[in-house]
């Protein structure tokens, strides 16, 4: 009888471990623009094959003055959220600024050091998951005011 109980407990532990380890965790990515200027502009992007959710259905986001706006939010399979470094924009084919006036944005939005990285760590059992958050900060000095 004890051998049966031991095998039953062992089998239960193996099945629980298998079900936890067989699940594919996901990491969420969020890209924001914090506009601390008095200018309105747009961020456009192309990310074919990427299923993403946003407030609007197109790939151009209007950035209002003195606001923080979500550009895009999506999930990818993986675990252990971390800064992707220079590869942080690899999911995009293109990302660009559209100005409503003729004043040029001087800040290069494709350079990693111009974005602030943060994360929100969560756990799926023992597996580290969560959200990678990238924020581009724009202020008046980032525009060519000529």
Describe this structure in words.
The protein has 146 residues and is mainly beta. The chain starts with a helix and ends in an 8-residue tail after the last strand. The longest helix has 21 residues, at 2-22. A hairpin with a 2-residue loop joins strand 7 and strand 8 (127-138). It has one helix and eight strands.
User: How confident is the prediction overall: mean pLDDT?
Assistant: 81
Instruction: Please tally the β strands and state the result.
Output: 8
List unreliable stretches of 5+ residues: none
**What fraction, in percent, of the residue positions are helical?**
10-25%
Q: Which word captures the global form?
A: elongated
- In DSSP terms (H or I, runs of 4 or more residues), the helix count works out at 1
Helix-strand makeup class: mainly beta
How far apart lie the N and C ends?
87 Å
Strand order of the largest sheet: 3-5-1-8-7
């Amino acid at each position: 009888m004890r051998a049966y109980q031991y095998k039953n407990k062992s089998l239960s532990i193996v099945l629980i471990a298998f079900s936890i380890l067989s699940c594919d965790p996901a990491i969420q990515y969020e890209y924001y623009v914090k506009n601390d200027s008095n200018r309105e502009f747009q961020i456009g992007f192309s990310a074919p094959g990427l299923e993403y959710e946003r407030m609007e259905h197109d790939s151009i986001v209007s950035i209002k003055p003195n606001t923080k706006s979500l550009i895009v939010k999506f999930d990818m399979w993986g675990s252990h959220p971390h800064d992707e470094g220079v590869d942080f924009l690899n999911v995009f084919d293109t990302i660009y600024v559209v100005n409503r006036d003729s004043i040029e944005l001087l800040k290069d939005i494709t350079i990693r050091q111009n974005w602030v990285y943060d994360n929100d760590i969560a756990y799926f059992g023992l597996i580290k998951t969560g959200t990678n958050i990238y924020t581009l900060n724009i202020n008046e000095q980032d525009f060519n005011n000529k």
